[in-house]
Each structure stands twice: as structure tokens, then as C-alpha cells.
SUKH-4 family immunity protein (Cellulomonas fengjieae), 211 residues
Amino acid sequence: MTHTDARAAVDLVLDQSVTLLATSGGAAVLPGPQVDAWSLPAEAKASLARYGLPGPRDDDLSRFLASFQSGRRPEVADGTEYYRLARFGVSRVCALPSGSVTAVPSSRDVHPQLEPLYPSGLLPSLVSTSVPQFVELAWRWGALVPILAEEQARVSVADDRAWREGRGADLPDPFDAYEDLCRYVLERLRRIDPQVDPASGFWADLLLDVW
């Protein structure tokens, strides 16, 4: 796949309907009847019931995977009530009663070398400002991540080859093309949720490394 092919594949995913993505992107996991008791906006419950969230996959790519809590009452972490919707790596992806969606790390601990970047440890990070927007983002991301992973791997191989052949300092950095693709993806995701920050936050960090 060339950079042009990757861009076209990204556009195809981002232009498809959520309905098509949810029916062709693997088995959707729907919440159980407990969702009716959750103190979430009506549109949040309707979106979860209609589309669900992506189920397990046979790869190690960074995806949102459905992990609906079974209880009717909210779970609590650091004094904050939330409803667990999914997992993302080691983080729980949770809806607050307001309807916004947050990634809650399983631990605040960070590697000593990363402490200057995270002086307060790992903290909850805003994923989306509403559940319906998160549902759309989760399905679109699930289809995007294989494309991004393949492009990241392609430019990594090209970069390694260039340096082994002694041409690394003379050629454009192959990773510039990947970073350009990531910026484009962030721009498109902001059309779904304007609060997606292209400079920092959950989505910017996520696009640094999709493996």
C-alpha cells in the first residue's frame, strides 16, 4: 500500500455510514437490559442499543473493545461515578452521567523515564463529549487502525532500508508521510467531535503508535 492508497482507504472508512461499519466491522456487542437503568441521556442509550460497540479481534492493535458493566448502578473511581462501556488497552472507557466519555487508566503509575511528562501520573483523559459521538468514533477507529498500522510499518521499513543503504540523510523522512496521514485523520475525527484535540490529549497520543 502506498501513501496515496492509505489516504484513499482512510477516506473510504470515514465516508461510510456507521450502520455499515457496525454491520461489516465484525460482531457488534450490545449492552444488556441494565443500560435502561443507567443515568445517561436518552440519545446515549439509544446509540448503544442501535450500534453496540466492537467485539474482540484477533490482533494486538489498539482498539476500543466492548466491556459493558453488568450492574445497573454506576461504578466509582476516585469519587467519580461512571458507567463502563469498553476497554482500551489497560484503560476502562466510561460514560459519565453528563454523557461525556473518559478513558480511566487502571493505574496512575508511570515508568520513571516518563515522569517528567506525567508529573501527576496517568490521569483520566477525555475521549469524546457524548456517547453517540464515541460510538461512531469507536467503529470508525476500529476500521482505521489496520490501515494506520500498515502505513506505520511500511514507512518504518522504508526508513530502515534507507539508512542501511547509506541514503538516510539524503532522503525525505518517510515518517513525514505517516505523520501527515495522522494529522488528516485527526482533522476528520474533529468533524465528528470538535473536542478531539489534534495537539494533545487522548487521540493525539493514540496516533503516535497504533500497535
Notes: The longest helix spans residues 131-164. The chain is about 40% helix and 15% strand. The mean pLDDT is 86. Residues 4 and 181 are 10 Å apart (CA to CA).
